[in-house]
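Most newcomers find our protein records easier to grasp once they have seen one. Sequence and backbone structure share a record, each on its own labelled line. To make this concrete, we reproduce a full record directly below:
***
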Amino acid sequence: MGHVVSVKVLQYSDDYLKLVMEGVKPSLVNSLRRILITDVPVLAIDRVIVLDNTTVMYDEVLAHRLSMIPLKTNLEKLPKIEECEDELVDPSLCQVRYQLSVKANDQLVSVYAKDLIPDDPDFAPVYPDTLIVKMGKGQVLTIEAYAKLGRARDHAKWQACLASYYYYPKVQLLNPKDERCASCLESCRGIAKNNNEFVITDPLQCTFDNWKTCEEACSGSLVVDWDEDKYVFWIENYGNMSMVNLLKEAFRVWKWRFTTFLDVIRNEAKRQASRPSEAEGQGNAGNQDTGLSQTQG
């Protein structure tokens, strides 16, 4: 009978997710972490056409700055990232055009991400008040930019989120009346004192390092270890899409990778299985040729 997988959500918003996972091997947990960080596709500006730039910022620096602005990514309006990478669709379908045109007449002007106007409003900058450049009087900035669907394994500008995990701490109080544990009350919120006895209220309210400090202070009355089958997993979303859509796409890519891997294994197994019959067939043909030669001789 397999392991029972359980997930408990501790914190949830479109910006941050924290949960406890149990019954999963660390290899799978780490695989999910890597998929979230490097393989969830988002839009990022990849090509900039500078039509006019009299600001103090060089074209190359401006292009780099624009590329790092997070853009909303509605994946329902775009092809699958695999189709874009394998050129199975028109490349123009995998990109979005942006235009920016600002002129400072008789006063200083600040150019913000909201001045980047996409052809489709669903792909507007995530943080519209991100400053791009400050312009002096009389300066002009006119550009045309193209954002392409990509993955963070190719460049950090395509990173959709940050994800990590750590083992769930196991804390045991062997002597709850040991007053040496009083020093833990100041450094750790996961322990409290009730009726002259120390109690563990929540292991997650204290970092593992602080628990280890408490273990040393209690001198054997408190033991700290980690649960190798239980993890605290967290995701910090950069805002390109909702947390739900981020997870959906991560699991879709994850499943696609496993399916592709299995197909490769099956094809290789079929190829290996066909080899003996080919060799046998060649051997029989050789024997027939030899017999024919002997007869003619």
